Amino acid sequence: MESSDLTVVIVTLKSEEVIFTCLDSIPNNIKVIVVENSNNKKFKEQLEEKYKNVNCILAGENYGYAVGNNTGLRKVNTKYALILNPDTELKEDTILNFFKTAELVPEFWLIGPGNNQANSKDFNDSGILEVNNLKGFAIFFNLIKFKKIFFDENFFLYFEEIDLCKDLKKRGGKIYLSKKIVINHLGASSVKRNQNYELEKNRNWHWMWSTFYFHKKYKGLIIALLIVSPKIFSSLIKIVFYQIIFNKKKRNIFLCRLGGIINSILGKKSWYRPSLD
Q1: Domain range for 199
Q2: Which member of 1, 79, 140, 147 has the greatest number of CB atoms within 10 A?
Q3: CA angle at residue 150 from 175 to 28, to 5 degrees?
Q4: 104 confidence band (pLDDT: 50, 70, 90)
Q5: Is residue 74 part of a domain?
């Protein structure tokens, strides 16, 4: 396998603090598509000037993780694609080990890095383990298995990779981890750190929206309601408590949490967006 067989896809949103470490770790003979959800033209120009292997697509607005990755994946014309979070960093042998794993399990649909995703003793002698789920920070796609249908675009944030894995497993798809593939991931660091309050509200709203939507999709309305009911009552209690002690920020976070649940129950789209500078 050669570098021309692979394209890397990265979705960004106010990711200027971390994206350069990620891009510097990717060999410069591998194509990279950056889908920029902040719609920052200056950022696009900066990336494409510094990295000749990068094509930055301005999304127009913040469409989230699922739509962003789908936008990039549908532009890929290589055999394989690797989606990365912008707060990741590859090792020198990461790409080579993805290719080696693909040769060992050619029937694969998805491959993920083995670090921090499974107990090391569970891997076989080749360092490979078949699994049901992968974490979304780094996923290697065998594009011949897909027909331009990837993530469910109803998700804005959270559960997208779980949903993708569950769907393809139902269709007989094979998912693997490789212990030899290592990718550093900072975690929750893709967006500028000065946006913590807005991001916390955003996380709470979308975590609850996606929780109900996911469970309704696979378990039905009644089971989904039973799952989120304790979270509704907990949010209501905390909203009242933080209102009483005049903690406006905490109250607003739990208002967002409750709002995500209610909007999902009512069948409304995941419309909430953080106010980012």
Answers
A1: 193-265
A2: 140
A3: 80
A4: very high
A5: yes
